[in-house]
Design goal:
There is one protein chain. This protein is an alpha+beta fold and about 700 residues long. Among the domains are: about 80 residues, Alpha-Beta Plaits, CATH 3.30.70; about 120 residues, no CATH class; about 70 residues, Alpha-Beta Plaits; about 200 residues, no CATH class. Helices cover about 60% and strands about 10% of the residues. The chain has 24 helices and 10 strands. The strands form 3 sheets. Strands 1, 2, 7, 8 and 9 form a 5-stranded antiparallel beta sheet that branches. Helix 13 runs antiparallel to helix 14, helix 17 packs parallel to helix 24 and helix 18 packs antiparallel against helix 20. The longest helix has about 40 residues. The two termini are about 30 Å apart. The relative contact order is 0.11. The mean pLDDT is about 90. It is found in: Membrane. Its main location: membrane. This is A-type ATP synthase subunit I. InterPro entries: V-ATPase_116kDa_su. Pfam families: V_ATPase_I.
Length: about 700
C-alpha cells in the first residue's frame, strides 16, 4: 500500500475525479501537509444530502421487492453541478411516492399504537361488565391491575382481597377489592401500580373486540397500500436503479472533493493506492496531474494506520466476512483468508459428514445467497457463500463416509442392526464410493469400525499442525511488523512451545502401518518422564520423550521471563508482581493452553460422531415404530417412521449445522487466530463509479 499525493490545476479537478473513480483503487484521505486551509465546502454539504437520498432509494427498492443494485450511465462535466442535478432527480422520484409512503407510515404508527393498547387490555379481555359499574360499587373499592407476586403479597397485607389469573413470567391479571374508604387508589399509587381503564369505562371485552376489528381493518388497508406502492415501484424499476447508481457514484466523488484542499491555482488530493497499481494510476492521470508517493513507515513510527488491501480471487473473497467478525488485518499482517479458505470448509466437512444433510444445507445456502442479493445485503451474500463452500466439502466427506440422511438409505438394516445378513439400503451398490474403498479408509473415519482411537489421534495431529502453522504465522507477522520486542518476547516463545505437539503426533509416521502403536510409545514415554510410573518406552523413544518435555519446560520458562519483563517495562509492575503474574500468564496459563488448545481439536471427531449417532438414533426409532420389520421398505412406508426420519434429519441439519459452524469459528478464532492475528487494522475502501461514465 502506498500513500499518494496528487496535484492538479483547478480547471482539471473534474477530470481527475472521473479518472480516480474509474481507477477503482484509490481511497481518499485528508492531506498530511495541506497546501491551504481552503476546502470544497459544497462537496462537504452534499455528502450528507447524498447519503439521505441513497437511504431513501434503498427503502423504495426494499418496499418494491427489487434487488438493491446500481445501474445506468451518466455524463459529467462538473461534479458539483452533477450532484445538484441528481439531487433534483432524487427529489422528483421521492415526491412521486411521498403521499403513499406517508400514508403507510401513519398506518404503521397507528397499528403500533393499537397493538400496544391490545396488549394492555389482553389480560382482562374476558370481563364483560362495564368498568363504570364495576368501579362504582357501593360497598367496595375495586381495581383491575397487572401485578407480580411481591405486589400481590403487599396488597393482601394492606387488607385487600386479590383475585388473580396467572399470565406467566411472574405476572397476574388481578381484580383487587378493599372496603370502602380504604383509599385503594393511593395504595396502588404507592406500590407503583396503574389502575386499568377503558375509554368511557366500557367493558374490556367490548373494548378488546373493537381494537381487534380496527387492527384488522388497518392491516387490510396497509396491505393494499403496500401492494399499490410495490406495483408502482416495479414499474419505475429502471429509473430507481439508475438513480441509485448515480447517487453512489456522486457519493464517492463528493468524498474525494470533501477531503481535497485547494489554492488559487491547484487542488491537492491524497489517499492510498495498492503499490502494484501505482504505474497504472500514473499513466491514467499523467496528462492532468502530478503524482508523488511514499510507503508506510515502520510500525509505530506514524500515527496513521494505513488501510489493508488484500487482493483475492473473487471466488474466495466471501471468506473475508468470517475474518471481519474477528477484525480487519493490519497493513503489516498476513491476511488469514488464504489460511481460512482451506481450513474452514475442511473442518466443517469433517464435523458434518452426511451427503444428504449437506445437500439440503447447500440448497438452503443457495436460497440464502439469492435472498441476500435481493435485499442488497453484502454480508448475507458472503456468509451464504461460506456455507456453500462448507456444505460442498461436507458432501465430499459424506460420500467417503457413505452416509445419506443417516444409515438407512445406504447401509440399510445391515448397518443399523450391525447384522451382516440384514438387507442393505437401496443406494448401497449405486453409491459413487465403492464398499471396497470405504473398507480401506474405515479405520480413519469416525463412524467406521474400530476407528475411535485412530480418529482421536488424527484429530490431535490435525490440531497440532494447525497450531504450529498459526504460531509460525505469528512469528512471520512479528517480523513484518518490524517490532523486535514483539517478536522475541511474545511470538517466538509460543512458536517454540507449539513445535512439541507437532513432533509428538508426527512421530507415528516413522511406521505409518503401526501409527497407533508408535504414538502409544511416545505418549507413554512422556507420561513416564512426568509421573515416573508405569513402564518406560524403548530407550531411543524415551530419550526423545524426555527431550520434548524438557523443551516444553524451557519454552514455558522463556515465556514466563518474557511476560515478566513486559509487565515490568510497560505496566510498571513491581519485580515481585511481574514475577508472579508473569508466571501465571506466561507459565501456568501457557501450559494449560498448550494442553487445552491441542485437545480442543478432538471436537472435530466428537461432532462427527454426534452427528452420525443422532441420525442413527432417529433411524432406530423409525425402525421400532415400524414394528421391528425385516424389510427396509416397511420402515420407509410406515407413516410414523417417515415422520421420525424427517424430524431427525431436520434437527441434524438445523441444530448440528449451526453448532458445527459455530465450533468451526471457535477453533479458528480462539485456538488459531489468537496465535498470529491481531485484526486491528482498517479495511481498504476505495472510491469507484457504480455507473458507466460517458464522455
Amino acid at each position: 500500500m502506498a500513500r499518494v499525493e496528487i496535484l492538479t490545476p483547478k480547471q482539471k479537478i473534474n477530470e481527475l475525479i472521473t479518472a480516480l473513480l474509474k481507477f477503482k483503487e484509490f481511497e481518499p484521505e485528508e492531506p498530511k501537509t495541506p497546501i491551504s486551509n481552503l476546502r470544497f465546502e459544497d462537496a462537504r454539504r452534499n455528502l450528507g444530502e447524498v447519503n439521505e437520498h441513497i437511504n431513501k432509494m434503498k427503502i423504495l427498492m426494499e418496499l418494491g421487492g427489487l434487488n438493491i443494485e446500481p445501474q445506468g450511465k451518466m455524463k459529467v462535466n462538473d461534479w458539483i453541478e452533477a450532484s445538484n442535478q441528481v439531487f433534483i432527480e432524487g427529489s422528483e422520484i421521492e415526491n412521486k411516492y411521498k403521499d403513499l409512503l406517508e400514508e403507510i407510515g401513519k398506518l404503521r404508527a397507528e397499528l403500533d399504537t393499537l397493538n400496544s393498547q391490545l396488549q394492555e387490555v389482553e389480560p382482562f379481555k374476558n370481563i364483560g361488565i362495564d368498568l363504570k359499574v364495576l368501579y362504582s360499587s357501593t360497598h367496595f373499592e375495586v381495581a383491575l391491575v397487572v401485578i407480580n407476586e411481591i405486589q400481590k403479597k403487599q396488597l393482601e397485607d394492606k387488607g385487600a382481597v386479590v383475585i388473580v389469573d396467572e399470565l406467566g413470567n411472574n405476572r397476574y391479571a388481578s381484580l383487587v377489592l378493599s372496603r370502602k374508604g380504604s383509599n385503594l387508589d393511593e395504595i396502588l399509587k404507592e406500590l407503583g401500580l396503574r389502575k386499568f381503564e377503558t375509554p368511557d369505562f366500557i367493558a374490556p371485552q367490548i373494548y378488546y373486540g373493537n381494537l381487534k376489528e380496527r387492527i384488522n381493518n388497518i392491516q387490510t388497508i396497509l396491505t393494499q397500500r403496500r401492494e399499490e406502492l410495490a406495483k408502482k415501484i416495479k414499474e419505475d424499476e429502471k429509473n430507481i436503479k439508475e438513480l441509485y447508481g448515480k447517487l453512489l457514484t456522486i457519493r464517492d466523488a463528493m468524498n474525494i472533493l470533501a477531503k481535497a484542499r485547494k489554492s488559487e491555482y491547484y487542488v491537492q488530493v491524497e489517499g492510498y493506492v495498492p503499490d502494484k497499481s501505482l504505474k497504472r494510476l500514473s499513466k491514467m492521470i499523467e496528462n492532468i496531474a502530478f503524482i508523488t508517493y511514499e510507503y508506510p513507515k515502520r510500525y509505530g513510527e506514524e500515527q496513521e494506520e494505513p488501510p489493508t488491501y488484500v487482493k483475492l480471487p473473487k471466488s474466495i473473497i466471501p471468506l473475508e466476512s468470517v475474518i471481519e467478525f474477528y477484525g480487519t488485518p493490519s497493513y503489516w499482517e498476513i491476511s488469514p483468508t488464504i489460511f481460512l479458505i482451506i481450513t474452514f470448509p475442511f473442518l466443517f466437512g469433517l464435523m458434518f459428514p452426511d451427503f444428504g444433510n449437506a445437500l439440503v444445507l447447500l440448497l438452503f445456502s443457495i436460497w440464502f445467497y439469492n435472498y441476500g442479493k435481493k435485499r442488497g445485503s453484502e454480508n448475507t451474500v458472503k456468509l451464504s457463500l461460506v456455507l456453500i463452500y462448507s456444505s460442498i466439502v461436507a458432501m465430499v466427506t459424506g460420500l467417503l463416509a457413505r452416509e445419506f440422511f443417516g444409515p438407512l438409505p445406504v447401509g440399510g438394516l445391515q448397518e443399523l442392526l450391525n447384522n451382516p445378513s440384514a438387507p442393505v439400503g437401496p443406494l448401497y451398490y449405486a453409491w459413487p464410493i465403492p464398499v471396497s474403498f470405504y473398507e480401506k479408509i474405515s479405520d480413519i473415519i469416525p463412524t467406521g469400525a474400530n476407528a475411535i482411537i485412530n480418529t482421536i489421534l488424527l484429530s490431535l495431529l490435525l490440531g497440532s499442525i494447525l497450531l504450529f502453522v498459526s504460531t509460525l504465522l505469528g512469528v512471520i507477522n512479528a517480523i513484518k511488523k518490524k517490532d523486535k520486542e514483539f517478536l522475541f518476547l511474545d511470538r517466538l516463545p509460543l512458536f517454540i512451545i507449539y513445535i512439541v505437539p507437532l513432533i509428538v503426533f508426527l512421530y507415528g509416521f516413522i511406521n505409518i502401518s503401526n501409527y497407533q502403536g508408535e504414538e502409544a510409545m511416545i505418549l507413554g514415554g512422556i507420561s513416564y518422564f512426568l509421573f515416573h510410573s508405569g513402564t518406560p518406552a524403548p530407550p531411543s523413544v524415551q530419550i526423545l520423550a524426555d527431550i520434548l518435555v524438557i523443551w516444553v519446560e524451557i519454552g514455558l520458562i522463556y515465556n514466563w521471563v518474557a511476560k515478566a519483563y513486559l509487565l515490568k517495562k510497560h505496566e510498571h509492575a513491581s519485580t515481585g508482581s511481574a514475577i508472579i503474574f508473569g508466571f501465571i500468564e506466561g507459565g501456568f496459563e501457557a501450559a494449560l493452553l498448550l494442553l487445552s488448545n491441542t485437545i480442543s481439536f478432538i471436537r472435530v471427531l466428537v461432532f462427527a460422531i454426534a452427528h452420525y449417532y443422532i441420525l442413527y438414533a432417529f433411524s432406530y426409532m423409525a425402525y421400532l415404530a415400524a414394528g421391528n420389520p425385516s424389510s427396509l421398505l416397511s420402515v420407509f412406508i410406515n407413516p410414523a417412521g417417515i415422520v421420525i426420519l424427517i424430524i431427525g434429519n431436520l434437527l441434524a441439519i438445523a441444530l448440528e449445522g449451526l453448532i458445527v459452524f459455530i465450533q468451526d469459528m471457535r477453533l479458528h478464532f480462539y485456538e488459531m487466530f489468537s496465535k498470529f492475528y491481531e485484526g486491528r487494522g482498517r479495511k481498504f475502501e476505495p472510491v469507484m463509479t457504480y455507473v458507466e461514465l460517458t464522455q
